[in-house]
Amino acid sequence: MIDKRKYASDILRIAAPLILSTTGFMLMQFVDAMFLSWYSTEAVAAAVPAGMAVGLIMSTFQDTCGYVSTFVSHYKGADQLTRTYGATWQGIYLSCASYIVVLGIGFFSGPLFDFVGHEPNVRILETRYFEIMCWGGIGTLASSAVSGYFSGTGRTRTLMWAQFTGFIVNIILDYLLIFGKCGFPGWGVPGAAIATTTAQILTTLILLIVFLCPGQDCEKASRYAAFDFPLMKRILRFGFPSGLRWGFEMLAWTLFLFIVGRIGIVELAATNIAFRINGFAFFPIVGLGQAVGILVGQAQGRRDPVQSERLTYMGLAISEAWMITAALIFIIVPAQLFNLFSGGNATESAEFVQITSTGVTLLRFVAVYSLLDASNIIFLTSLQCAGDTRWTLVVSIIAHLSFLILLLIADHLRLGIWVEWSAATLFVVMTAMVWFRRFQSGKWQHIRVIEYASFEEEDSDRFAETTA
Q1: End-to-end alpha-carbon separation of the chain, Å?
Q2: What are the backbone angles phi and psi of residue 453, rounded to the nearest 5°?
């Protein structure tokens, strides 16, 4: 008889620190948006699209580096523990190479946002935020690789504490650098970007220190630091399609924000705030999905697809319970949620009333698609962690191109914000159905991510498994 309580317990044990970590990241974005909304409407209208543009640029690199976690979890499941270090080092090397590209892109921020065509005041702030985030992007990229070791081996508490430290530092620097407190300059949007990049670099340094001295043997991690071309090639074979898929997803949602911004600043600000509020529902499920992915990766490393399937369905049940709760909150108290962003600024109160009026309706869209977004996250994460990255890439490109075509038609015909948000909601519903059908087909069960040579037998310094 299947012990469902054990599966739920295993998922929640690993998921709890990840949920706190991803929720902390969401709160960091939430606080950024809230502080910037208190600073000015132009500031919050600029930061979210610019932030998503940065995410678009770095997403393919970041997700490719982060795919290290899948290799680590598979190696752990296959009891090839020394290979977890080698995979992590390849991810670190990949993140350094990726940063060179991102650094160069930061110098072209002006032409990019001139092309988008937002209002001049917003465009200047978007440009500053984008270039600072690109130039300081090494923290985000390297963190993705090093985090893969801790998540893949199930050491999620270490991730939680490192990211929590970064979260606290980010809030403090936000307050000081956005508003100019305690003798610091009040830089507004650029100040928020500097605070975020500084916090991310700090988080990465903490994880690197722990990785290099994991406790049982301070030399163990550095011993496997050599560049491994066959392993790097294998990581790119599976990880790069995963990164491209994430890049196309970021492209679609970034263009969605830019297209909404062409309607007007009120519509753009309302959409930005609705996205931030949506984070309360979305990011905890991302953490839960990561936990499911870790356990699926370990089960696949043991060649046990039946357990992978059971873990995925249990993860879906848990995530849907949360999403239903969040959807009810969005429907019952939408205006109160938007009022958190008002800042009590009397000079902007009339404008913020319009933003809230629009946002209340937007949160109803969010409530609807949140119910199926859990399915999106859980099934897609399981497919990715099982190595089904090529098929998901092809389907994702088709789906996101279709979404973009609908958005461009709506923009050309000036159909307005409700049509554009309806297209977004339909897109989420349809992709959820596609990932479910792919998972149900079982074709992912036969993919082999790692090689199964007995590396442990060749290692004369075999060590005990201590990272459960």
Answers
A1: 25
A2: -65, 150
Structure tokens that stand for 398 in this block: 């088709």
**Dist CA 384 CA 104 (whole Å):** 30
What pLDDT score was predicted for residue 463? 35
Interaxial angle between packed helices 265-301 and 4-39, expressed in degrees from 0 to 180 and rounded to the nearest 10: 150
The encoded tokens of residue 150 equal 């801790």
Q: Please tell me the predicted confidence (pLDDT) of residue 31.
A: 77
Which ranges constitute the DSSP H helices of 413-441?
417-441
Reply yes or no on whether the pLDDT at 455 is more than 70.
no
Q: Where are the alpha helices (DSSP H) in 333-388?
A: 334-339, 349-385
Tens-digit pLDDT profile for residues 326-348: 999 999 999 888 888 776 554 45
What tens digit of pLDDT does each residue of 220-242 get?
Answer: 666 788 899 999 999 999 999 99
d(CA 281, CA 92): 31
pLDDT at 329: 93
DSSP state of 108: G
Global pTM reads 0.82
Q: Are 68 and 145 in contact (CB under 8 A)?
A: yes
Which residues, 6 or more positions from 241, have their beta carbon under 8 angstroms from its beta carbon? 389, 390, 392, 393
Looking up tokens 């130039």 gives 135
Q: Nearest 5°: CA angle at 254, between 249 and 258?
A: 150
Domain ranges of the chain: 4-448
Q: What is the distance between the alpha carbons of residues 203 and 197, in angstroms, rounded to a whole number? A: 10
DSSP letter (8 states) at residue 303: T
